[in-house]
Amino acid sequence: MESIGIVVLRTIGMYFVIFIILRSMGKRELGEISIFDLVIFVMLAEMAVISIEDLDKGFFSSILPMIILLIIQRISARISLKSQKIRQLLDGKPSIIIQDGKIDEKEMNYQRYNMDDLLINLHEKGIQLVQDVELAILEPNGKLSVFEKKDHPVKIYSPLISDGVIQHHVLEQMGKDEKWLREKLKKSGYHEIDRISYCSLNKDGTLHIDESNLNK
């Protein structure tokens, strides 16, 4: 009976420990699970089970590895906020699967994303034909974002600037270069690229600019 009581207490205690850890990781962790997040969640679950089953192991020594995982996650999240390269390394980056109604089979093969997966996702979004898709992007979390063609389709591009970093591959898709972007920014009164958190092209050809306020 004593061992049963310990198991019950450990289960309740571990529930609150994991609850606190998940809340400490931030809302993003609960809404979007990347590969890095998934690894941490799996490890937390395994540690919790071992803690409950192994009664010879002290409770504090059981939650210590969980606290270490939390510290690792917090540090990596902090670094990824500052560095786009680290963020892409941990979470991956979006992949264009369809552009102008044409499927990029090479990218699909690289992402291990088959045709059935693509068609199912398109059908779930109410799209029957691939040629009706202006742009389909496979997000780092595995979701497929689809932009359907309109009567007067407008080319949709990813951000020109993200976290103060110019997205040169996007400029190449547009047939533009960094000089063109800097001139557009200067006309809008912006001279420091690293102070811009987000910049994209509006439908009318003007720039949408969101300046970072972290250093203000």
End-to-end separation in angstroms reads 60 Å
Q: Count the E strands.
A: 8
Task: Report helical residue fraction.
Answer: 40-55%
Averaged pLDDT: 81
Global Rg:
23 Å
Low-confidence stretches: none
N to C succession of SSEs: HHHHHEEHHEEEEHHEE
The secondary structure category is: alpha+beta
| Continuous helix count | 9
Structure explained in plain terms:
The protein is an alpha+beta fold and about 220 residues long. About 50% of the residues lie in helices and about 15% in strands. It is built from 9 helices and 8 strands. The strands form 2 sheets. It has a 4-stranded antiparallel beta sheet. A 4-stranded antiparallel beta sheet has the order 6-5-7-8, covered by helices on one side. A hairpin with a 5-residue loop joins strand 7 and strand 8. Helix 1 (about 1-25) packs antiparallel against helix 3, helix 1 packs parallel to helix 4 and helix 3 packs antiparallel against helix 4. The termini are far apart.
How would you describe this structure in keywords?
single chain; 216 residues; alpha+beta; four-stranded antiparallel sheet; 8 strands; flat
In short:
By secondary structure, the protein is of the alpha+beta class.
Layout of helices and strands, plus pairs?
Blueprint: H1 2-24, H2 27-31, H3 35-53, H4 59-82, H5 84-91, E1 95-99, E2 102-103, H6 105-110, H7 115-124, E3 133-138, E4 144-148, E5 161-162, E6 165-166, H8 168-174, H9 178-187, E7 196-201, E8 207-211
Helix pairs in contact: 1-3, 1-4, 3-4, 4-5
